[in-house]
Hints:
Blueprint: E1 10-13, H1 16-42, H2 48-71, E2 86-89, H3 98-109, H4 111-116, H5 121-135, H6 140-157, E3 164-175, E4 179-189, E5 196-205, H7 217-227, H8 235-245, E6 249-263, H9 273-281, E7 290-307, E8 312-319, E9 334-342, H10 343-352, E10 361-365, E11 371-374
Parallel strand pairs: 9-10
Antiparallel strand pairs: 1-2, 3-4, 4-5, 5-6, 6-7, 7-8, 7-9, 10-11
Helix pairs in contact: 1-2, 2-6, 5-6, 9-10
Amino acid sequence: MPDLDLTTDHKALDDDLAARRYFAKFERITGLLAGVAEAMEKDRALSALESDATQAHVRAIAATFRALSLKYLVSGRIEGIGQRHLTIDLHESGFPIFQEIVTMANDAAQAAKHLAGMPDAARLKDEMVRQIVGERVVPTRLQYAMSQRLYYEALVRGGLFFAQMHPEAQFIAEAPGGRRRFLIHWGVYDSQLNVPVLYLLDAEDSGRKALPLDEGRWPEVQAHLLAQSVGGLKLLTIAKGFDADFADLHPKRLRRIHLGPMYSSAFTLQTGPIREVLEEARSPTGEDWALAWTVEELESERVEVEKGWFSSSERQIFRLDPLAGLGPDTGATRITRSMILPQRPFQVLAEKDPEGFRAVRKFVVGREGRVLVYG
């Protein structure tokens, strides 16, 4: 792989073999994340419904990587016709840059039109065989055409993770006072951090009509939540705004899950202990990586009633980290940091035992793909 450009946070993978190694790595990683969600469900860090929602988003992320791998299948082999290289954020991300996800969404909107104007797969294969056998040349442009056809077919199939994954509401249970509890979940691809971020909101609904069926409230709730899904906003700010703007919706718990950064000596720049761990592990191809999984959580501690002239309204009082006064104000009840990594990097990490990683939960991938939890 060519030397990384240390002057920028972005790197174009201009070699098709490097791009294939990159996508193979993420195919491995995304294939393991469902196991992490299941382990969190066993530990009761996620409910069964929350685990299902998280796994659905993970499957969408995996589908996005598969689609991009088809788009850039012959990356670096053709010159002069538009962008041919995947661009990744190599510093504190390891994921494709935000613009890649936006471009993919734009492509998806016009995928059917592109397919209608392209030769079908059978014809492209026949033409490739003729060039290989008759002309004795590598049919690079036909290979590119095939990769684009497969890419657009993947976009038409759908199930992808876009820059915004609109909120969905799932019924949990009846609550006291004739209320209903819903899990509202959604996701965004953070444009600053270049990582996927998931949100899980446990809310009580005291409206007369169930939230997902309410033609007036539900579109407003969806628009509100997406507008507030900014990495720079604290959970406390998001939850208070939601509580104030919707009198008959009561946020009881809000979580934000950052899936990333991904660290790899082959593709990213990192500093500190994680760099030393990955370098000393000297892992074989496909196992040179570690993925951060961070959960911010905010819980309602109690309810206060604000009385007005003609009505009263509930306000949630949220529990904040009791140690927040000794450090930065996180605006959360707690933050749980985890690291997912293969066995060899974990062994090096355990031997070095850096102080900053002692409180980090480790999800370790065994030889057969089984996820084991340490810490």
